[in-house]
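>> Question from a student workshop board

For tomorrow's exercise we were told to take the sequence and the ligand below, predict the bound structure, and bring the output to class. My setup keeps failing. Could a helper post the expected result so I can at least see what it should look like? The ligand is coenzyme A.
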Amino acid sequence: MRFPVGKDIRLKANVAFTAVADLNAGERDAVDVLSRAVYPPAEWADWPGRKLEWEKPPRCVRVWGGDGELASYIGVVLRQATHDGRAVPIGGIGGVKTHPAARGRGYAALGVQRAIEFFQEQADVMFALLVCEPDLIPYYARLGWREFGGTLLVRQYGAIVEFTFDRTMTLRVRRDGPIDGVIDLCGPPW
Ligand SMILES: CC(C)(COP(=O)(O)OP(=O)(O)OC[C@H]1O[C@@H](n2cnc3c(N)ncnc32)[C@H](O)[C@@H]1OP(=O)(O)O)[C@@H](O)C(=O)NCCC(=O)NCCS
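>> Workshop helper replied:
Here is what the output should look like for this input. Compare the format with yours to find the bug.
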């Protein structure tokens, strides 16, 4: 299945899927430079999400633009979750970011598509899940994601709590992503 990518996708983009632990020092620096451009530390010091416990995705997709600069980064997670009490292996994406100078060219969409291909390559991943701010719902909806209107349970510092900080969206991998019921991530969000 292919997903629509940006209208300006006359891309000469390179895409790599990697375990974060395998990034070398220079590659980590490039990710840090991208992160600081997207989230300038001075502006983000008071972000309320800092107080939450998040999983740092152990895998990533990186997308480079035609100029050879790192343009986009997508964190990728596998998780044994439950939906309405039944165990379900799911894939997650998080920490999606594109350099401000490289936006609107389909780089994030391309990286998300690679993450979904990774989920499809796994034997058992049923659906994908992300959390995002409300203004990004139409963007991900254009890529095929649907808003989950049920209850999302997560772990926060050992406690089971309902996640209400962001909105939740799901996408079919082997099975339609649920749009209602109770999903328990059985761990922190990403
Ligand atoms: C969201 C983000 C990753 C998109 O990256 P990108 O490479 O420009 O994405 P694409 O080129 O695939 O798609 C661009 C579309 O994103 C949508 N979009 C981006 N930011 C948006 C926002 N804040 N509100 C609504 N739509 C937004 C727009 O529809 C845009 O389409 P347009 O170019 O026709 O205006 C990028 O804007 C970004 O890094 N934002 C800051 C970090 C963030 O919010 N990350 C999302 C975490 S879930």
